[in-house]
Design goal:
By secondary structure, chain A is of the alpha+beta class. Chain A contains 9 helices and 24 strands. Chain A has 2 domains: 226 residues, PmbA/TldD fold (2-Layer Sandwich), CATH 3.30.2290; 255 residues, no CATH class. In chain A, the strands form 5 sheets. In chain A, strands 1, 2, 3, 4, 5, 6, 7 and 8 form an 8-stranded mixed β-sheet that branches. Chain A has a 5-stranded mixed β-barrel with strand order 10-17-18-20-24. A 4-stranded antiparallel β-sheet of chain A has the order 13-12-11-16. Chain B is an alpha+beta fold. Classes of the chains: A alpha+beta, B alpha+beta.
């Protein structure tokens, strides 16, 4: 693969590129699903190709191909330079990149059990057994399970001399039970909705989830939701379960801190951000107990945002985003770092595949654990609602106003969970919401959740991001608005 | 054994000539190779999908190009059937060894599962209606030409004291499908898309077009429209949430109603996750709502065959407010004793089928007429981040974006801060007072459709944001 990289970089240089970086990527993926006790999808795929990014005449060009011959790679590199020169016809400023060292390295994400070495029969047997457990429950009308495994090799080379090989193994799994009754559809998912939990782990992730114990629980809950009370509409105390809080972090902290959005580069599609440059080190983003980091290092955990180097050849880092409630940092790349006073990229450039341009993406944007035991948090709450497992999510294009609904809620009265609530939802303004946080559970309850489906960019790229979170409590939150009809 | 790239045609205007797609003969050769290799592996039936793209996208922001990309790729996806079991594997490596390994992967996957008595024999040869959506000028549009159009749009923004962001994309793609029962289908098309956001801080507005032929739209006119509306959107005032009459431009209609159509899959009804369960044949929407799925409509794009290789049928989904027909794959059609409609996805899958070429029956009210007929309401340019809140009542949430305007006594009188909506699609399609002519619309949350602008009463806005 390094030969392809060398040909690409040399061709680009000869055609006039002043900088170039190249990624050869090989992706292997396996997808298994079941529905109502039958196999749904049973598929695997592989994709191998090269993406070449160059600077010429002070502007960017990118071209990609799966024609991995000497001629194919050279033609692709020449095309990238031609595109860069076309970009220069409508450039506003010269691209300036923060300095970075050259690295020669090889890294593999740790895993105990290679999911591609586990017999398919084992994987399908587990899914079908979990599916059957859910179907045993009266009132369940649809059962679904899924597993997904990916093995991604990338070979990165740049004209400053870096040569970095990385291999990542990613696993994911989830189950869901749906119940249709009367004029209502209710659903429960485990361990998370929209595909379950995903992490930079091997098959050991699947074994840790204990699907068989949880399948009947969510099936019973899906059926029981029909007779649960409607979540009331009010302003009150809200406790979010960890996975829902992970998505709240993703939407109302992770996206607003992307510096490309802040600078208007996503204005036409993903939107911009309320976190204008003057807010850095001045905005009281959250209450004093809130600490958020963007951490791509393995030390943080095996998240979907964990790696050794980003797709610009910058080593993984941990950066403060919110420190004691104060806004402290953005996600940056080599092109934008200097705009926020940094002399180095924060290492967040990531591309979905060989045919996509690296762009600023979340790594693991996580809320650090607090001090509360979960039972203690419930017993300390006199009147509140606990909401768990996302059902819908939406936020405006500057990331101020959001509305989320979850699959299930629990009313808390006098320090106890007293009854199930259906159709729970809440809404708010980002900074008001985070400033209302008065309790965060401790490390025992903290999970590094994986969001495998974050869309951004044109052409669209889907990226996995990590979000560590433990349950937390928020005061004076608008509750129940999604189902209000006023 | 990947066929070599054909010699590129040199255009005097091109600085980076676009690669040509494989010929139909070359596609057939790949299919034949896979079928030959599969015969020696014990596969009883084999199906081959080929997809090829050559896409380009120029992206601009802050009045200049900041990203500019090209992509070329070819994938071969193979499904085999053996002993009542089936599975799929996909590769983009065309060497014979890779194709053989991919076939073996399908067999290995298939052998790992229980027999499935529902698997149908693959379909034989079919007849397809011809559609022509390949425009060589779009395929040949160069990075330089796109850059010049972007430059002109950015110059307009600078002249008007605004900031432009957007894309100008063009490209070509093709799909082919063949199987061991001698079915063969192939289709190619081009696409061109221009989308622009003009920002007059803190306001913004937007315009977008998408056609097979880039000459079907005028990038400067789109830029001028977005610019004019961005200026109108400045100094937005806050209105209280509540129920308003709205005039939804076609892009807003498209992105909202796009969430309705997976419910027309027969599989969705069998799974009891469709809002049409217990509602087929009833007066669900207003009598002014009729919707067809029609890949042959002149404003539509897409192949005339589905993922199983069956010809797509034109189908009336909603007739004067009554859901009349569902779309059927071969499997769901057999289970329901119906005829497959040519809307199936590639097998195996758990979703079955879906209509992908929606055409609404329009009306004769222009946007201007809708505004003139409105005593008090809101004109909506575009919607954003739409998600389903209630799957049976089809309550959707989302935000207005890039230009929300107050209409009073027949005139646009002010810009308004953006709202969050929580609105049932079923209720909305009962409250349509006026329809515009149906046009090819494009948004960001749903695939392109032929839809009209709509004037809708009692649209529910739940909360307001800060801009």
């Amino acid at each position: 693969m390094w030969d392809h990289c060398t040909i690409a970089l040399e061709t680009a240089r000869l055609r006039g590129a002043t900088y170039g970086d190249v990624r050869v990527m090989h992706l292997r993926q396996r997808d298994l699903t079941t529905k109502n006790g039958q196999i749904g999808t049973l598929a695997q795929s592989e994709s191998l190709g090269i993406g070449i990014r160059v600077l010429a005449n002070g502007a960017w060009g990118f071209a990609s191909t799966d024609r991995l011959t000497r001629e194919g790679v050279a033609a692709c590199a020449a095309q990238a330079v031609s595109i860069a020169k076309a970009s220069a016809l409508a450039k506003r400023t010269e691209v300036v990149m923060a300095p970075e060292e050259a690295y020669v390295d090889s890294w593999q994400s740790p895993f105990r059990k290679d999911p591609f070495e586990i017999p398919l029969e084992t994987q399908l047997t587990l899914l079908l057994a979990a599916d059957e457990e859910m179907r045993r429950v009266k009132g369940v009308t649809l059962t679904e399970t899924d597993m997904q495994f990916r093995k991604i090799d990338s070979w990165f080379a740049s004209s400053i001399g870096s040569r970095i090989h990385q291999r990542k193994v990613i696993s994911g799994c989830g189950i869901a039970a749906t119940s249709f009754q009367g004029e209502e559809i209710q659903k429960r998912s485990y361990p998370n909705s929209f595909g379950g939990q995903h992490a930079l782990q091997g098959y050991e992730l699947i074994e840790s989830l204990d699907l068989m114990r949880n399948a009947p629980i969510i099936a019973e809950e899906a059926a029981a939701l029909h007779s649960a009370s409607q979540c009331p509409e009010k302003v009150g105390t809200l406790i979010l379960g960890g996975s829902q809080l992970g998505l709240q972090i993703h939407e109302s902290i992770g996206h607003p801190i992307e510096l490309d959005r802040v600078l208007g580069q996503e204005a036409n599609f993903a939107g911009t951000s309320f976190l204008t440059l003057d807010q850095l080190n001045h905005l009281k983003y959250a209450s004093n107990i809130v600490n958020v980091v963007a951490d791509a290092r393995l030390d943080h955990g095996p998240g979907l945002g964990t790696f050794a180097y980003d797709d610009e050849g910058v080593p993984a880092q941990c950066a403060d985003i919110i420190k004691d409630g104060q806004f402290r940092g953005y996600l940056s790349n080599r092109e934008t770092a200097h705009l926020v006073g940094l002399n180095r990229s924060s290492g967040t450039m990531r591309a979905e595949n060989w045919n996509r341009l690296p762009m600023i993406r979340m790594t693991n944007v996580s809320l650090l654990p607090g001090t509360w035991d979960f039972d203690e948090l419930i017993s300390d709450t006199q009147d509140g609602i606990l909401m768990e497992t996302n059902r819908s999510w939406s936020i405006d294009d500057r990331r101020y106003q959001f509305q989320f609904s979850t699959e299930i809620g629990w009313e808390i009265k006098g320090g106890k969970k007293v009854r199930m609530l259906k159709n729970p939802s809440y809404s708010g303004i980002t900074t008001e919401f985070w400033n209302s946080c008065d309790a965060i559970c401790k490390l025992d309850h903290w999970t590094l959740w994986g969001t495998p489906n974050c869309g951004k960019g044109q052409p669209m790229q889907t990226m996995g991001t990590g979000h560590g979170a433990s349950p937390a409590r928020f005061r004076n939150v608008r509750i129940g608005t999604a189902f209000s009809n006023q | 054994m990947k066929p070599p790239a054909k010699a590129v045609k040199k255009s005097s205007r091109n600085i980076a000539p676009a690669p040509e797609l494989l010929s139909e003969c070359e596609l057939r050769r790949i299919v034949d190779t896979v079928l030959r290799l599969a015969r020696s592996t014990g596969a009883e039936e084999t199906e081959v999908h080929i997809d090829e793209v050559a896409d380009n996208l120029t992206r601009f922001a802050n009045n200049g190009i900041h990203q500019n990309v090209a992509e070329q790729g070819l994938t071969v996806s193979i499904r085999t059937v053996v002993d009542g079991r089936t599975a799929r594997a996909t590769t983009n490596r065309m060497e014979e060894d890779s194709l053989r390994a991919t076939i073996e992967a399908t067999l290995s996957l298939a052998h790992s599962q229980p027999k499935d008595p529902r698997i149908l024999p693959m379909p034989g040869k079919q007849r397809y209606r011809s559609v022509n959506r390949f425009v060589k000028q779009s395929a040949a549009l160069s990075a330089e030409e796109r850059a010049r159009a972007v430059r002109a749009a950015c110059d307009l923004a600078i002249k008007n004291g605004q900031v432009a962001a957007g894309i100008f994309a063009s490209g070509q793609s093709q799909s082919a499908l063949g199987n061991s029962r001698r079915l063969f289908a192939a289709y190619r098309e081009t696409h061109a898309e221009f989308s622009i956001t003009m920002q007059e801080a803190p306001a913004a507005s937007w315009a977008k077009a998408n056609f097979a032929d880039f000459r079907a739209f005028d990038t400067q006119k789109l830029a001028a429209r977005a610019s004019e509306k961005a200026h109108m959107a400045a100094n937005a005032r806050e209105l209280p949430p509540g129920r308003y009459t709205v005039i939804l431009e076609p892009a807003a209609v498209l992105d909202l109603v796009g969430f309705l159509f997976y419910d027309f899959a027969a599989t969705a009804l069998l799974d009891k996750r469709s809002c049409l369960n217990d509602r087929m044949g009833k007066q669900l929407f207003g009598k002014n709502i009729s919707i067809a799925d029609d890949v042959y409509h002149p404003l539509q794009q897409g192949a005339p065959f589905d993922g199983e290789g069956l010809p797509r049928q034109r189908l009336l989904l909603v007739d004067r407010g009554i859901p009349k027909n569902l779309v059927y794959s071969r499997a769901t059609a057999k289970a329901a004793r119906k005829t497959p409609t040519g809307h199936g996805f590639a097998l195996p899958n758990e979703y079955g089928e879906a209509p992908m070429n929606l055409v609404f029956t329009g009306g004769d009210s222009s946007l201007e007429k809708m505004i003139a007929s409105t005593d008090r309401g809101l004109l909506v340019t575009r919607l954003w981040y739409i998600r389903e809140v209630d799957p049976y009542e089809k309550v959707m949430t989302g935000m207005t974006r890039d230009g929300l305007f107050l209409v009073e006594k027949g005139h646009v009188t002010a810009a308004v801060r953006n709202f969050r909506f929580n609105q049932s699609l079923i209720e909305m399609l009962n409250n349509v007072e006026l329809l515009g002519p149906a046009i090819r619309a494009t948004g960001e949350e749903a695939f392109e459709m032929v839809v009209p602008a709509m004037k809708v009463r009692d649209f529910h806005f739940a909360e307001v944001t800060k801009f």
